[in-house]
Amino acid sequence: MSATPASDDALHLRPEGPAGGFPLVTAARFRAVLGRFPSGVTVVTGMGERGPVGLTVQGFMSVSLRPPLVLVSVARTSRSWPVIERSSAFCVNLLAAGQEGLADVMATRGADKFADVRWRPSVVTGSPVLDGGLGHVDCRLERVDDGGDHLLALGRVVDLGHTDAVPGLLRFRGRYGSTGP
To answer: Is 120 part of a structural domain of the chain?
Structure first.
């Protein structure tokens, strides 16, 4: 028995399911299940003609040691990403526990995101390195690929740094948490 999509947000992720049917995966179910996987919270920053830009990103991962590559997943609807993409460089800032407000500001459209944010330019690309984080990964943009409703940006790491002073900021089931007490 085949399931029919109940709405346009239904996804068919596998060609076969129980009894040869298609499992119905809605955006809501997809979000509910994958929201149970804790992920780190980052802010991707870059420099545009009018100054610094940034956006909050949960989809971040290391890809390769040789060469050093990372991947960020950016919503196609982002207004900051096109500015960063044009600059061909970005910095992934790893947020620390206590930086929930920073994550929220960088996720807000139309806000003056850097009005109250302390930062310094990265040594290699000049992209903003935000104060108080766990670390940063400065990158040159290698390429951008299609990722459905997101873009998958591959970056070559050109510089990085870290601190072990504080726990990391996480997202779990739609809420903030941390890696430590």
So the answer is: yes
Q: What is the value of pTM for the model shown?
A: 0.84
**Two tokens, residue 35:** 């929201």
Domain that holds residue 56: 39-178
Amino acid at 38: P
- Mean pLDDT calculated for residue range 130-143: 97
**Inside any domain, residue 21:** no
Quick: pLDDT tens for 23-49. 688 888 888 888 788 889 999 999 999
Q: Residue 121 corresponds to which tokens in the numbers above? A: 């330019």
Query: What residue type is assigned to position 25 of the chain?
Result: V
Look at residue 106 and tell me if it is in a domain.
yes
Residue 153 has, within 13 A of its CA and on its CB side, a CA count of: 25
| CATH number of the domain enclosing 77 | 2.30.110.10
The pLDDT of residue 84? 98
Alpha helices in 3-107 (DSSP H): 27-34, 80-87, 100-106
Does residue 174 form part of some domain? yes
Indicate the burial class of 47 (C-beta count within 10 angstroms; 0-12, 13-18, 19 or more): buried
Give the chain's domain count.
1
State the CB neighbour count (10 A cutoff) for residue 173: 10
The single-letter DSSP state of residue 179 is: S
